DNA sequence: ATTTATATATAAGATTACGATATATATAAT
DNA sequence: ATTATATATATCGTAATCTTATATATAAAT
């Protein structure tokens, strides 16, 4: 049985992945040791965990769904990859290209608009109670 | 090129159709001429027009998408049909079964929850400005 | 006459997401 | 020693879903 959240996930995966990658994340210069923030760089497993944590387990991004999307985004020129060895294992980091950043912003905005349209279509109230 | 609204439509079609059918609509007793309201009864073409009008053309439900869903919902016992001749043409009306009404309510509620989750995941503000 | 609007429906094809599976290392518990 | 858990990438087959194109037909409008 498909979870009720994942039923609606169809079509939003790209948007979720691109948005997560736009976020500023802590980093450090390995030579100088100086800490700073920079635009995201995430590896596959990390993305699935981030989605799980933020949605308190409501949305589960399976690997079978994730990797095909990552590969497609890379193919489309929205992501680049760098593979690094971390603790004996290879880890593949994904980073947004400038075009990827642009598409990410566009897609999030499109999704907001879609939610408004759906709220109207389904005659749903604007949600004040659960404001974050 | 796929419209940005329709990109996110996947997974929401059943919910939209079921919800529209839950709505009270004007009707009349053909014998007595008395007007009243009753739970929806819509035909396919009417559904596509209702979606188009309410979303100001942002969401377009194609027939190729609509009919398979209607047939499936009927098969699943959520809808029943009655065919009538109107102005020389056959028209097929779809009505919710009691189970269909139940599923409709559940799906709309699931979708609201999904939107909340997505708003959180994408760090979107609660939308006050466009409240309907 | 022809186009537009109304109306139902199927077929072909592409896309998408999921479950299962394979591979591999590291660590913690039994 | 073995088992389990967590981390990590990736493919394959399948099922479901959606898009586009097509067929059919009537009525009204131009």
Could you characterize what this model shows?
The structure is a homodimer of 132-residue chains. Chain A has helices at residues 4-7, 13-22, 44-54, 63-75, 98-121, and strands at residues 24-28, 35-39, 42-43, 79-86, 89-96. Chain A has 132 residues and is of the alpha+beta class. Chain A has one domain: Arc Repressor Mutant, subunit A (Orthogonal Bundle), CATH 1.10.10.10. Chain A has a 3-stranded antiparallel sheet. A two-stranded antiparallel sheet of chain A has the order 1-2. In chain A, α2 crosses α5 (98-121). The longest helix of chain A has 24 residues, at 98-121. The first copy, chain A, starts with a helix and ends in an 11-residue tail after the last helix. Chains A and B meet through α1, α2 and α5 of A and α1, α2 and α5 of B. Chain A binds a DNA duplex (30 and 30 nucleotides) through residues 2, 6, 9-11, 13, 43-46, 49, 62-65, 67-69, 71, 86-92.
């Amino acid at each position: 049985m498909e979870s009720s959240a994942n039923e609606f996930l169809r079509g939003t995966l790209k948007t979720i992945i691109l948005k997560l990658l736009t976020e500023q994340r802590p980093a450090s210069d390995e030579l100088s040791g100086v800490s700073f923030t920079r635009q995201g760089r995430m590896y596959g497993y990390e993305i699935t965990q981030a989605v799980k944590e933020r949605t308190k387990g409501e949305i589960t991004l399976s690997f079978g769904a994730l990797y095909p999307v990552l590969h497609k985004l890379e193919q489309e020129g929205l992501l680049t990859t760098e593979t690094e060895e971390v603790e004996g294992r290879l880890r593949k980091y994904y980073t947004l290209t400038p075009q990827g950043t642009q598409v990410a912003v566009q897609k999030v905005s499109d999704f907001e608009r879609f939610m408004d349209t759906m709220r109207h279509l389904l005659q749903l109230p604007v949600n004040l109670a659960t404001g974050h």
